[in-house]
Amino acid sequence: MSLPISREVFIITSKKIRDIALKHFSEFGYESTSLNNIAEEVGIRKASIYAHYKGKDEIFKTVLHHALRTEKAEIANYFTSHQHESLENILRGYFDWLKEESKNNECLKFLMRVVYFPPPNLRKETSDLVNPFLTEMYRHLSRFLREKSRVENMVFSNHYSSIALTFITLSEGCFIELLFAEEKSYEARVNAAFPIFWQGVHCD
C-alpha cells in the first residue's frame, strides 16, 4: 500500500513534469513527445502522471500558459533594464537579445515552435492563448514608445500604436529566419531592415 504524498511534493512533481514536458515539446514537437519519456525523466511511472494531469493535452496547455507568462516577464525585463539607453539602441538591441534568447531560453524555443506549428487538435486553444499575449505585448510597446519619446523629446512620423505594430511585424519577419535559416541570415536581415525602419518612424 502506497503512502499519500504531501501537497508540497505533489506541487513539486507537477512542476517537474511541466518543465520536462516543456523541453520535450520544444525539441520534439507535440506529436512526437512521449509521456513515457517524460515520466522516465521525472523519475515516476507513466500512470503517476495522471494524478497531476488528465493527459498530454492538459500538459501542453499548462506548458503554454507557463511559457507565455515567463516570456512576457522576460520581454518586460528587457525593456525595463535598458530603459536608460536611447530608444534606437533599445529597439535595435532587442534583436540581439532575441537571438541569444532563442539559444538559451526553453520557453522561447517552445513558443517558436508552437506559434508557427501548433498541434492540429489544439490549434484553437493555442490561438486563444497566443493572440491575447501578442495583443498585450503590442499595447505595452505602444506605451513604452510614448513614454520614451517624451523623455527623449522625440517626434515620430506616425502614431505610437502604428510604430509598435510595425516593429512587431519587423520582429516577426526577422524571427522566422531563426526558425528556418542560419543565424547569419537573421543578422543580415536585421542589419538591412532595422535602419530603414528607424529612418522611417522618427523625425529629425
From TrEMBL:
One Pfam short name: TetR_N
DNA-binding region positions on the chain: 34-53
InterPro entries: Homeodomain-like_sf, HTH-type_Tx_Regulator, HTH_TetR
GO MF, any single term: DNA binding
Residue span, HTH tetR-type domain: 11-71
Keyword Repressor: yes
Keyword DNA-binding among record annotations: yes
Keywords: DNA-binding, Repressor
PANTHER family linked: ACREF/ENVCD OPERON REPRESSOR-RELATED (PTHR43479), ACREF_ENVCD OPERON REPRESSOR-RELATED (PTHR43479:SF11)
Protein name, as recorded: HTH tetR-type domain-containing protein
Origin species: Virgibacillus profundi
